[in-house]
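Tutorial handout. Part one gives the primary structure; part two gives the three-dimensional structure as tokens.
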Amino acid sequence: MAMARILGTICLGLAIAVAATFARLFLKARAGHRAAEDANRAQTERLCAEIAAHRETENALAHAKDAAEAANAAKTRYLVAVSHEIRSPLNAIYGYAQLLERGDSIPPREAGGVIRRSAEHLTNLVEGLLDISRVESGVLQVRQELVRLPALLDQVVEMFRVQASAKGLSLDYVVEGRLPAYVRTDEKRLRQILINLLSNAIKYTEKGGATLTVRYRSQSAAIEVRDTGPGIPPEDLERIFEPFERGRETDAAMQPGIGLGLAITRVLARILGGEVTVTSEVGTGSSFLLRLMLPEPLEAPAGAAAYRRVTGYQGPRKTILVIDDSPAQTTVVNHLLRPLGFSVFEAGGGAAGLALADHCVPDLVLLDIQMPGTSGWDVAEQLRARSGPGLRIVMVSANAHEFHAGRDGHRAHDAFLTKPVDLDALLDMIARQLGLDWIIEDAEAAPAPPRPPLALPDAATPYLEELRRFMKLGHVRGIEATLVNLERDVPESADLVARLRPQLEGFDLRGLARTLDDAR
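Part two.
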């Protein structure tokens, strides 16, 4: 019995030992399996993360590809548009210049008007491109200068009246309440904003017209440009302010231009401390609203005048010295100032200008910056050292980035003008610097009473329609030829032709359009 118990105990111990061994092996195997599962799970998660990263990379590459293709397409559209925009005014300038050289009978006023407007178009195009570059590089400078606000608005509106009349559109200018004679702002930037807004209003409108409404209150202005064009879809209201974009509508995309106008307008408005907003209804029209701070000076500047045409100035004769290596620039200044009674002397470089200044003792010097040899800045320093503070020095340069207002006590010059120079702005500058009071031509005579509407036979209708078609195209020669045919084939139209010919010779398309409307 004792032996049996001993054997039973031994067997039980062995069984327990075997069970414990198997338990340890099982636990060890289970732990290894769990570790393998964890490793496998971690590897799977790493693979999933890597796949997700690859997908994100593929999506980023796809977006980058789409953006590159869009940018390439925009660049192509931009180059084509810029080429067209530059060639059109250049062709007009080149063509009219050749006609004048050949002694053609073209009216000088017509040629001058076309050449001036084409040059303004080129200037605005170049300035727009430069402004985009300056904004991106952060070097766009803003000036604070006295601006004749009513005169500026009148000039911009008159600039587009011919274009509106040529399309058979109306262009109204409304001032609600009081408008200050002078404000402080950057005249060039404000002019550019107004030109861009009015240009778009006329460009995209085929029926009706546009209205410029100005409201001024508490040192701020609200300038609204409303048109009766096709309108802008809601999804494009912000898109049209992006560079090279003009909306998705086919008619808008086919219009001339490079798609920078509204982008520049919004940037310039914000730089000047204002904002441009737009509201629109498809099929009805659009309204662009410019809100801008335009502080009014406490008193009008001395020597300034809101003039129509200057014929001279009061007081003793003044001497002006022009130092510029461009003969064309000195010729323009000569033709402008000599008839007004100024003594004008010219020099083609810095050294010659300094020598001439000792001889003629000028009251004011118009000085170019970039000239062969001595820089205009150095010439200004020497002139100031020789003549003292009594001499007025105005820097005139095409390098707008070199702009410095002057009269700050640190620089030799008194003022700065940017080329191409607006002649009215030049006269204003001379008046302020020399304290001149201009002699203004007499006010225009009272307008003649309106003539009664013309009654024409039905035979004149095709000729009237042809005249309107040529007006929309701006085809002056076509208008002239049609008038000849109308007078020959419809004798009853002699009175109408007699009214239209002087307007055509003066390139008064607005008056010509009104006369044609009277003949309906």
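Part three, for discussion. The first helix runs from residue 2 to 101. Residues 310-440 form a domain with the Rossmann fold fold (CATH 3.40.50.2300).
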